[in-house]
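hi! just following up on the protien thing from before. the input was this:
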Amino acid sequence: MIRLLLADDQNMLRGAMATMLDLEEDFVVIKQAANGEEVLQALQTQTFDLLILDIEMPKYDGLEVVKQMRQNSRKEKVLLLTTFSTAAYVKEAMKMKVEGYLLKDTPSEQLAHAVRDIVYHGRTIISPEITYQFVQGVNNPLSEREMKILSLAEKGFSTKQIAAELFLSPGTIRNYFSELLDKLGAQNRSQAVYIAKEKEYI
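and the predicted 3d structure came back as:
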């Protein structure tokens, strides 16, 4: 039986994924976590065969969790999930010898197959789309969440609507936009969206 910890800050998505994973006869989701801090707390009292982590979570993102695990010589294998195939993330994950890196829209049967390959066969699994981005050397300074926010802004979502979509506060979204403008050298969110599309960040 493969003992799993599943971490994602979007409650509905995490619940749906946990239900799907529990349907597999040889999987059991022992623990669900909404942020990196909860993952690290769980590791103080429990052991798992595999941690499935959203790469971008509050209170320590997936990469920071892995970093602390490595520092504490934890033996659990790690599969990172992301919405975007971002080369910078892949490079950092590979430095930490993460066992898997998949897009969140990976079909359920492929995710299950990846879990078994990692746990039973010791393989490293990376989505083809992510591998392509890494090989191409795309240098995207934006985080996964920042790209998602810009994508929603491009669709005409207001700050309040973006906050509701991402289960964050409007103030947090405004803080993200402030950082985005600095990173992209933009004067406003419309210009930020334009620059991001020109550079193929979104």
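The CA atoms of residues 87 and 97 lie 15 Å apart.
The chain has a mean pLDDT of 88.
cheers
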